[in-house]
Amino acid sequence: MGSFIIRDVIHGDIEFDDKIKQILNCPEFQRLHRIHQLSCEYLVFPTATHTRFSHSIGTYHVMKKLIEHFTVKLEEKGYKVKKEDKQLAYVAALLHDIGHGAFSHTFEKIFSLKSHEAWTMAIIKDKNTHIHKKIIKLYGKAFLQKLIDVMSKSYKNQESSNIFSIIATLVSSQTDADRMDYLLRDSYFTSVTNGRYDIERLIKSFGVTQINSELRIYINEKYMSTLEEYVLARYFMHKEVYQHTTKRHMEICLCLIFKRVKEILVSKTKIFCDDALKNLILKKNITVSDYLKTDDSYFMYHIMSWTKSKDDILVFLCNCFLNREQFDIEVSYDEEMLKSKINKLLAKHNKQEIKDLNDEYFYIETQKQVNLYVSSTENIWIKSKDDDKLYDLSQKSLIINRENAIKDYSSKNIFISSTLFKIIYGIDLQL
Protein backbone atom coordinates (compact mmCIF):
# COMPACT_ATOMS: atom_id res chain seq x y z
CA MET A 1 0.00 0.00 0.00
CA GLY A 2 1.06 3.61 -0.56
CA SER A 3 1.88 6.32 1.92
CA PHE A 4 -0.64 8.06 4.15
CA ILE A 5 -0.48 11.82 4.75
CA ILE A 6 -1.80 13.97 7.59
CA ARG A 7 -1.74 17.74 7.16
CA ASP A 8 -0.22 19.36 10.25
CA VAL A 9 -0.31 23.05 11.14
CA ILE A 10 3.33 23.03 12.35
CA HIS A 11 5.17 20.74 9.93
CA GLY A 12 2.90 20.68 6.88
CA ASP A 13 2.41 17.25 5.30
CA ILE A 14 3.46 14.38 7.59
CA GLU A 15 3.88 11.14 5.67
CA PHE A 16 3.38 7.66 7.15
CA ASP A 17 3.98 4.25 5.62
CA ASP A 18 1.32 1.55 5.93
CA LYS A 19 2.83 0.00 9.07
CA ILE A 20 2.88 3.29 10.95
CA LYS A 21 -0.65 4.00 9.73
CA GLN A 22 -1.82 0.75 11.33
CA ILE A 23 -0.22 1.79 14.64
CA LEU A 24 -1.93 5.19 14.40
CA ASN A 25 -5.27 3.41 14.08
CA CYS A 26 -4.84 1.38 17.28
CA PRO A 27 -7.34 2.41 20.01
CA GLU A 28 -4.51 3.12 22.47
CA PHE A 29 -3.07 5.71 20.09
CA GLN A 30 -6.44 7.15 19.09
CA ARG A 31 -7.06 7.76 22.81
CA LEU A 32 -4.49 10.58 22.59
CA HIS A 33 -7.07 12.59 20.61
CA ARG A 34 -8.94 12.88 23.92
CA ILE A 35 -6.06 14.22 26.02
CA HIS A 36 -5.13 17.89 25.81
CA GLN A 37 -1.44 18.51 25.30
CA LEU A 38 -1.37 21.31 27.87
CA SER A 39 -3.75 20.08 30.57
CA CYS A 40 -6.22 22.91 31.32
CA GLU A 41 -4.10 25.60 29.63
CA TYR A 42 -7.09 26.32 27.36
CA LEU A 43 -8.60 28.12 30.37
CA VAL A 44 -5.79 30.68 29.98
CA PHE A 45 -5.06 30.52 26.24
CA PRO A 46 -8.39 29.64 24.53
CA THR A 47 -6.75 28.21 21.40
CA ALA A 48 -4.51 25.81 23.36
CA THR A 49 -6.83 22.89 22.69
CA HIS A 50 -4.34 20.77 20.75
CA THR A 51 -3.85 17.16 21.81
CA ARG A 52 -1.25 14.54 22.63
CA PHE A 53 -2.16 12.95 19.28
CA SER A 54 -1.03 15.91 17.19
CA HIS A 55 2.10 16.31 19.31
CA SER A 56 2.95 12.60 18.93
CA ILE A 57 2.74 12.64 15.14
CA GLY A 58 4.74 15.87 15.17
CA THR A 59 7.44 14.18 17.26
CA TYR A 60 7.47 11.30 14.78
CA HIS A 61 7.99 13.78 11.93
CA VAL A 62 10.85 15.55 13.73
CA MET A 63 12.46 12.17 14.43
CA LYS A 64 12.38 11.34 10.72
CA LYS A 65 14.24 14.57 10.00
CA LEU A 66 16.77 13.86 12.75
CA ILE A 67 17.39 10.29 11.57
CA GLU A 68 17.87 11.50 8.00
CA HIS A 69 20.50 13.94 9.28
CA PHE A 70 22.26 11.49 11.62
CA THR A 71 22.32 8.67 9.08
CA VAL A 72 24.82 10.71 7.07
CA LYS A 73 26.79 11.76 10.16
CA LEU A 74 27.02 8.20 11.50
CA GLU A 75 28.04 6.72 8.16
CA GLU A 76 30.90 9.23 8.10
CA LYS A 77 32.02 7.59 11.38
CA GLY A 78 31.72 4.09 9.92
CA TYR A 79 28.33 3.22 11.45
CA LYS A 80 25.61 2.00 9.13
CA VAL A 81 22.08 2.90 10.21
CA LYS A 82 19.94 -0.08 9.23
CA LYS A 83 16.30 0.07 8.20
CA GLU A 84 15.28 -1.54 11.51
CA ASP A 85 17.23 1.12 13.44
CA LYS A 86 15.25 3.82 11.66
CA GLN A 87 11.97 2.02 12.31
CA LEU A 88 12.85 1.74 16.01
CA ALA A 89 13.45 5.49 16.17
CA TYR A 90 10.20 6.30 14.36
CA VAL A 91 8.01 4.00 16.48
CA ALA A 92 9.68 5.10 19.73
CA ALA A 93 9.05 8.76 18.87
CA LEU A 94 5.46 8.08 17.84
CA LEU A 95 4.63 6.15 21.02
CA HIS A 96 6.63 8.19 23.55
CA ASP A 97 3.45 9.72 25.08
CA ILE A 98 1.02 6.82 24.69
CA GLY A 99 0.99 6.34 28.47
CA HIS A 100 -0.07 9.90 29.28
CA GLY A 101 -2.94 10.32 31.70
CA ALA A 102 -5.75 12.84 31.56
CA PHE A 103 -4.92 16.53 32.02
CA SER A 104 -1.33 15.83 31.00
CA HIS A 105 1.16 15.79 33.93
CA THR A 106 -1.53 16.84 36.43
CA PHE A 107 -2.83 13.26 36.42
CA GLU A 108 0.40 12.05 38.04
CA LYS A 109 0.20 14.77 40.72
CA ILE A 110 -3.41 13.92 41.57
CA PHE A 111 -3.08 10.16 41.87
CA SER A 112 0.62 9.74 42.77
CA LEU A 113 0.88 6.80 40.42
CA LYS A 114 3.81 5.75 38.27
CA SER A 115 4.96 8.16 35.60
CA HIS A 116 3.48 8.35 32.12
CA GLU A 117 6.75 6.85 30.84
CA ALA A 118 6.15 3.80 33.05
CA TRP A 119 2.56 3.54 31.78
CA THR A 120 3.90 3.73 28.21
CA MET A 121 6.06 0.69 28.93
CA ALA A 122 3.13 -1.11 30.57
CA ILE A 123 0.87 -0.49 27.55
CA ILE A 124 3.48 -1.63 25.04
CA LYS A 125 4.32 -4.75 27.07
CA ASP A 126 0.71 -5.75 27.82
CA LYS A 127 -0.15 -8.71 25.59
CA ASN A 128 -3.82 -7.72 25.54
CA THR A 129 -3.36 -4.25 24.03
CA HIS A 130 -3.92 -3.69 20.34
CA ILE A 131 -0.64 -1.79 20.11
CA HIS A 132 1.34 -4.75 21.52
CA LYS A 133 -0.26 -7.18 19.09
CA LYS A 134 0.14 -4.81 16.15
CA ILE A 135 3.86 -4.19 16.78
CA ILE A 136 4.55 -7.94 16.95
CA LYS A 137 2.49 -8.59 13.82
CA LEU A 138 4.15 -5.81 11.82
CA TYR A 139 7.73 -5.92 13.12
CA GLY A 140 8.18 -9.09 15.20
CA LYS A 141 8.88 -9.95 18.86
CA ALA A 142 12.58 -9.09 18.64
CA PHE A 143 11.69 -5.58 17.44
CA LEU A 144 9.29 -5.13 20.37
CA GLN A 145 12.03 -5.98 22.86
CA LYS A 146 14.46 -3.60 21.17
CA LEU A 147 11.80 -0.89 21.27
CA ILE A 148 11.37 -1.43 25.02
CA ASP A 149 15.16 -1.37 25.49
CA VAL A 150 15.52 1.91 23.59
CA MET A 151 12.60 3.65 25.30
CA SER A 152 13.73 2.52 28.76
CA LYS A 153 17.45 3.04 27.97
CA SER A 154 18.25 -0.53 29.03
CA TYR A 155 20.26 -1.46 25.94
CA LYS A 156 23.75 -1.66 27.50
CA ASN A 157 26.19 -4.33 26.30
CA GLN A 158 24.17 -5.04 23.19
CA GLU A 159 25.70 -5.26 19.75
CA SER A 160 23.82 -2.16 18.56
CA SER A 161 24.14 -0.21 21.82
CA ASN A 162 25.94 2.70 20.14
CA ILE A 163 23.17 3.23 17.60
CA PHE A 164 20.57 2.62 20.32
CA SER A 165 22.19 5.32 22.48
CA ILE A 166 21.80 7.86 19.68
CA ILE A 167 18.15 6.88 19.15
CA ALA A 168 17.45 7.02 22.90
CA THR A 169 19.01 10.49 23.10
CA LEU A 170 16.82 11.68 20.24
CA VAL A 171 13.75 10.21 22.01
CA SER A 172 14.52 11.67 25.45
CA SER A 173 17.08 14.38 26.26
CA GLN A 174 17.39 18.16 26.37
CA THR A 175 17.60 18.18 22.57
CA ASP A 176 15.11 15.46 21.67
CA ALA A 177 12.39 15.20 19.03
CA ASP A 178 9.73 15.51 21.74
CA ARG A 179 10.88 18.92 22.96
CA MET A 180 11.67 20.14 19.46
CA ASP A 181 8.05 19.57 18.46
CA TYR A 182 6.19 20.69 21.58
CA LEU A 183 7.97 24.05 21.85
CA LEU A 184 6.88 25.03 18.34
CA ARG A 185 3.42 23.49 18.70
CA ASP A 186 2.64 24.97 22.11
CA SER A 187 4.01 28.35 21.03
CA TYR A 188 1.72 28.34 17.98
CA PHE A 189 -1.45 27.34 19.84
CA THR A 190 -0.89 29.77 22.71
CA SER A 191 0.36 32.56 20.40
CA VAL A 192 3.34 33.05 22.72
CA THR A 193 6.01 33.87 20.15
CA ASN A 194 8.91 33.45 22.60
CA GLY A 195 8.66 29.69 22.07
CA ARG A 196 9.68 29.78 18.43
CA TYR A 197 13.09 28.80 17.09
CA ASP A 198 14.65 27.66 13.80
CA ILE A 199 14.18 23.88 13.82
CA GLU A 200 15.78 23.28 10.41
CA ARG A 201 18.95 25.10 11.41
CA LEU A 202 19.03 23.39 14.82
CA ILE A 203 18.90 19.95 13.19
CA LYS A 204 21.64 21.03 10.79
CA SER A 205 23.82 21.99 13.77
CA PHE A 206 24.03 18.45 15.20
CA GLY A 207 27.15 16.35 14.91
CA VAL A 208 28.28 13.06 16.42
CA THR A 209 31.63 11.89 17.74
CA GLN A 210 33.06 8.85 19.49
CA ILE A 211 34.49 9.15 23.01
CA ASN A 212 35.82 6.04 24.79
CA SER A 213 33.95 3.75 22.37
CA GLU A 214 30.65 5.60 22.99
CA LEU A 215 28.88 7.86 20.53
CA ARG A 216 28.00 11.35 21.70
CA ILE A 217 25.83 14.01 20.07
CA TYR A 218 27.13 17.57 20.00
CA ILE A 219 26.31 20.92 18.43
CA ASN A 220 28.82 22.86 16.39
CA GLU A 221 29.77 26.15 18.04
CA LYS A 222 29.11 28.09 14.84
CA TYR A 223 25.39 27.42 15.46
CA MET A 224 25.49 28.73 19.04
CA SER A 225 22.89 31.45 18.42
CA THR A 226 20.42 28.86 17.09
CA LEU A 227 20.92 26.67 20.17
CA GLU A 228 20.58 29.65 22.51
CA GLU A 229 17.33 30.56 20.77
CA TYR A 230 16.06 27.01 21.39
CA VAL A 231 17.09 26.92 25.08
CA LEU A 232 15.61 30.37 25.69
CA ALA A 233 12.39 29.26 23.96
CA ARG A 234 12.02 26.52 26.56
CA TYR A 235 12.75 28.98 29.38
CA PHE A 236 10.15 31.50 28.23
CA MET A 237 7.50 28.84 27.55
CA HIS A 238 7.88 27.55 31.11
CA LYS A 239 7.78 31.07 32.52
CA GLU A 240 4.84 32.33 30.48
CA VAL A 241 2.84 29.20 29.60
CA TYR A 242 3.61 25.90 31.32
CA GLN A 243 3.78 27.45 34.79
CA HIS A 244 1.21 30.21 34.27
CA THR A 245 -0.38 31.18 37.60
CA THR A 246 -3.97 30.65 36.44
CA LYS A 247 -3.12 27.24 34.97
CA ARG A 248 -1.44 26.25 38.24
CA HIS A 249 -4.49 27.56 40.11
CA MET A 250 -6.88 25.38 38.10
CA GLU A 251 -4.63 22.32 38.36
CA ILE A 252 -4.55 22.64 42.16
CA CYS A 253 -8.32 23.01 42.05
CA LEU A 254 -8.41 19.66 40.22
CA CYS A 255 -6.25 18.12 42.94
CA LEU A 256 -8.63 19.45 45.61
CA ILE A 257 -11.62 17.98 43.76
CA PHE A 258 -10.19 14.47 43.83
CA LYS A 259 -8.97 14.89 47.40
CA ARG A 260 -12.56 15.67 48.38
CA VAL A 261 -13.96 12.74 46.41
CA LYS A 262 -11.51 10.43 48.18
CA GLU A 263 -12.76 11.64 51.58
CA ILE A 264 -16.35 11.04 50.48
CA LEU A 265 -15.54 7.53 49.22
CA VAL A 266 -13.64 6.64 52.40
CA SER A 267 -16.59 7.82 54.50
CA LYS A 268 -18.83 5.41 52.52
CA THR A 269 -21.09 8.29 51.51
CA LYS A 270 -22.88 7.61 48.24
CA ILE A 271 -21.40 9.41 45.23
CA PHE A 272 -21.30 8.71 41.51
CA CYS A 273 -17.90 7.24 40.63
CA ASP A 274 -16.86 4.66 38.03
CA ASP A 275 -15.08 1.57 39.41
CA ALA A 276 -11.85 2.36 37.57
CA LEU A 277 -11.81 5.87 39.01
CA LYS A 278 -12.57 4.54 42.49
CA ASN A 279 -9.51 2.31 42.24
CA LEU A 280 -7.41 5.26 41.10
CA ILE A 281 -8.60 7.54 43.89
CA LEU A 282 -8.28 4.90 46.60
CA LYS A 283 -4.85 3.90 45.26
CA LYS A 284 -5.85 0.32 44.54
CA ASN A 285 -4.29 -1.71 41.75
CA ILE A 286 -5.46 -0.55 38.34
CA THR A 287 -5.12 -2.63 35.20
CA VAL A 288 -3.77 -1.31 31.91
CA SER A 289 -7.25 -1.84 30.46
CA ASP A 290 -8.84 0.37 33.14
CA TYR A 291 -6.12 2.99 32.80
CA LEU A 292 -6.78 3.23 29.07
CA LYS A 293 -10.44 4.06 29.77
CA THR A 294 -9.36 7.33 31.35
CA ASP A 295 -8.95 10.51 29.33
CA ASP A 296 -9.96 14.17 29.67
CA SER A 297 -13.58 13.52 28.70
CA TYR A 298 -13.85 10.66 31.23
CA PHE A 299 -12.81 12.96 34.07
CA MET A 300 -14.82 15.93 32.80
CA TYR A 301 -17.96 13.76 32.83
CA HIS A 302 -17.36 12.92 36.48
CA ILE A 303 -16.61 16.53 37.40
CA MET A 304 -19.78 17.74 35.68
CA SER A 305 -21.78 15.03 37.46
CA TRP A 306 -20.34 16.07 40.83
CA THR A 307 -21.76 19.59 40.43
CA LYS A 308 -25.05 17.93 41.43
CA SER A 309 -23.53 16.30 44.50
CA LYS A 310 -24.94 16.94 47.98
CA ASP A 311 -21.46 17.89 49.18
CA ASP A 312 -21.19 21.71 49.07
CA ILE A 313 -17.38 21.74 49.08
CA LEU A 314 -17.18 19.38 46.11
CA VAL A 315 -19.87 21.27 44.19
CA PHE A 316 -18.06 24.58 44.69
CA LEU A 317 -14.67 23.18 43.60
CA CYS A 318 -16.14 21.51 40.50
CA ASN A 319 -17.84 24.74 39.45
CA CYS A 320 -14.61 26.66 40.03
CA PHE A 321 -12.79 24.37 37.62
CA LEU A 322 -15.52 24.13 34.98
CA ASN A 323 -16.12 27.89 34.94
CA ARG A 324 -12.54 29.04 35.56
CA GLU A 325 -13.52 30.77 38.79
CA GLN A 326 -10.37 31.55 40.73
CA PHE A 327 -10.45 31.90 44.50
CA ASP A 328 -11.54 35.46 45.17
CA ILE A 329 -8.90 36.78 47.62
CA GLU A 330 -5.22 37.06 46.66
CA VAL A 331 -3.06 37.44 49.76
CA SER A 332 0.05 39.63 49.69
CA TYR A 333 1.66 38.42 52.92
CA ASP A 334 3.21 35.08 53.89
CA GLU A 335 1.53 31.88 55.07
CA GLU A 336 2.43 32.27 58.75
CA MET A 337 0.86 35.71 59.00
CA LEU A 338 -2.19 34.47 57.11
CA LYS A 339 -2.53 31.45 59.37
CA SER A 340 -2.22 33.67 62.45
CA LYS A 341 -5.00 35.98 61.22
CA ILE A 342 -7.29 33.06 60.37
CA ASN A 343 -6.65 31.31 63.68
CA LYS A 344 -7.50 34.49 65.60
CA LEU A 345 -10.78 34.65 63.70
CA LEU A 346 -11.50 30.97 64.38
CA ALA A 347 -10.66 31.33 68.08
CA LYS A 348 -13.04 34.27 68.31
CA HIS A 349 -15.83 31.94 67.15
CA ASN A 350 -14.69 28.98 69.28
CA LYS A 351 -13.48 26.99 66.27
CA GLN A 352 -10.47 24.67 66.19
CA GLU A 353 -7.25 26.25 64.94
CA ILE A 354 -5.69 25.40 61.60
CA LYS A 355 -2.36 23.55 61.72
CA ASP A 356 -1.40 23.55 58.05
CA LEU A 357 -2.98 25.78 55.40
CA ASN A 358 -2.07 23.27 52.70
CA ASP A 359 -4.58 20.86 54.24
CA GLU A 360 -7.41 23.37 53.81
CA TYR A 361 -9.83 23.42 50.87
CA PHE A 362 -10.14 27.21 50.88
CA TYR A 363 -6.38 27.71 50.33
CA ILE A 364 -4.42 27.56 47.07
CA GLU A 365 -0.73 28.35 46.72
CA THR A 366 0.75 28.48 43.23
CA GLN A 367 4.49 28.33 42.68
CA LYS A 368 6.61 29.04 39.65
CA GLN A 369 10.26 27.98 39.37
CA VAL A 370 12.10 28.06 36.07
CA ASN A 371 15.74 27.27 35.34
CA LEU A 372 17.48 28.54 32.25
CA TYR A 373 19.58 25.40 31.79
CA VAL A 374 20.39 22.37 33.95
CA SER A 375 23.49 20.31 33.19
CA SER A 376 23.48 18.13 36.32
CA THR A 377 21.63 15.23 34.68
CA GLU A 378 22.54 15.55 31.02
CA ASN A 379 24.68 17.97 29.09
CA ILE A 380 24.25 19.79 25.83
CA TRP A 381 27.70 19.41 24.31
CA ILE A 382 29.32 22.09 22.16
CA LYS A 383 32.16 21.31 19.76
CA SER A 384 34.59 24.20 20.01
CA LYS A 385 35.64 25.81 16.74
CA ASP A 386 39.03 26.55 18.33
CA ASP A 387 40.25 23.12 19.47
CA ASP A 388 37.53 20.65 18.33
CA LYS A 389 37.00 19.56 21.96
CA LEU A 390 33.57 19.17 23.59
CA TYR A 391 32.42 21.60 26.27
CA ASP A 392 29.18 21.95 28.19
CA LEU A 393 26.88 24.66 26.83
CA SER A 394 27.36 26.77 29.98
CA GLN A 395 31.11 26.90 29.30
CA LYS A 396 30.77 28.32 25.79
CA SER A 397 27.63 30.47 25.74
CA LEU A 398 27.77 34.13 26.74
CA ILE A 399 24.04 34.07 27.54
CA ILE A 400 23.58 30.59 29.03
CA ASN A 401 26.79 30.71 31.03
CA ARG A 402 27.44 29.11 34.41
CA GLU A 403 26.47 32.25 36.32
CA ASN A 404 23.09 32.52 34.59
CA ALA A 405 22.45 28.77 34.47
CA ILE A 406 22.45 28.39 38.26
CA LYS A 407 19.89 31.17 38.68
CA ASP A 408 16.19 30.46 38.57
CA TYR A 409 13.10 32.57 38.23
CA SER A 410 10.66 31.91 41.06
CA SER A 411 7.41 33.38 42.30
CA LYS A 412 4.56 32.40 44.61
CA ASN A 413 0.92 33.44 44.81
CA ILE A 414 -1.55 32.70 47.60
CA PHE A 415 -5.31 32.62 47.06
CA ILE A 416 -8.19 32.22 49.51
CA SER A 417 -11.83 31.40 48.78
CA SER A 418 -14.09 33.32 51.15
CA THR A 419 -17.04 31.25 49.93
CA LEU A 420 -15.38 27.94 50.78
CA PHE A 421 -14.24 29.31 54.12
CA LYS A 422 -17.83 30.13 55.01
CA ILE A 423 -19.07 26.74 53.75
CA ILE A 424 -16.53 24.96 55.96
CA TYR A 425 -16.53 27.15 59.08
CA GLY A 426 -19.78 29.10 58.83
CA ILE A 427 -17.89 32.38 59.29
CA ASP A 428 -17.47 35.40 57.03
CA LEU A 429 -13.76 35.69 56.25
CA GLN A 430 -12.34 39.05 57.34
CA LEU A 431 -8.62 39.60 56.73
UniProtKB/TrEMBL annotation:
InterPro entries: dGTPase-like, HD/PDEase_dom, HD_domain. SMART domains: HDc (SM00471). Pfam families: HD (PF01966). Residues 48-192 form the HD/PDEase domain. It comes from the Bacteria. GO terms for molecular function: dGTPase activity. GO terms for biological process: dGTP catabolic process. This is HD domain protein. It comes from Peptoanaerobacter stomatis.
